[in-house]
Amino acid sequence: MLVLLAFIIIFHITSAALLFIATIDNAWWVGEEFFADVWRVCVNSTNCTEIDASFQDYPTMQAVQATMILSTILCCIAFLIFVLQLFRLKQGERFVLTSIIQLMSCLCVMIAASIYTDRREDLHKNNLGLYALTQNGNYGYSFILAWVAFAFTFISGLMYLILRKRK
Question: Residue 115 belongs to what domain range?
Answer without folding.
Answer: 2-163
